[in-house]
Predict the structure.
Amino acid sequence: MLARRYAFAPPALAANPAEADVSSGAKLVQLFGCKDCHGASLRGQLLYDIPMVARLSAPNLTLVAKTYSDQQIAEMVRSGVRADGTELVGMPSQALLIRQYVGNSQTWKDIVSG
Ligand code: HEC
């Protein structure tokens, strides 16, 4: 199950700090809880270690970011799948997608009206 491979076809995306709203990005990192798992400075941390059962760490994103393209990072976070098709175990990508809708006030207008 964990060795399963998923097809991965990321859409084109290239981050340009000159065009991006960096302070908005920092707020979204806060809102989406990236630091809760990846650490206050996103340098990674051990999430849990249950001997003989499971050990899970959230990796250092400041190092990881250098090994992928912007496009790959964006798609990885959204899909929960790496560029090589392997799964990001413990990355809450589905929850992040749901938040995208839950945080959208139009969604709530639609739900309340529906
Ligand atoms: C609930 C904890 C949790 C949250 C919240 C979380 N992550 Fe993760 N993330 C993980 C874990 C655990 C992994 C390692 C997955 C693995 O190795 O299979 C991971 C992996 C990643 C990877 C892939 C690293 C690699 O080398 O393959 C990226 C990129 C990433 N996270 C970015 C983010 C971003 C950006 C956010 C916020 C939008 C975020 N994460 C929120 C737990 C979390």
Summary: The first strand starts at residue 45 and ends at 50. The CA atoms of residues 61 and 104 lie 27 Å apart. The mean pLDDT is 83.
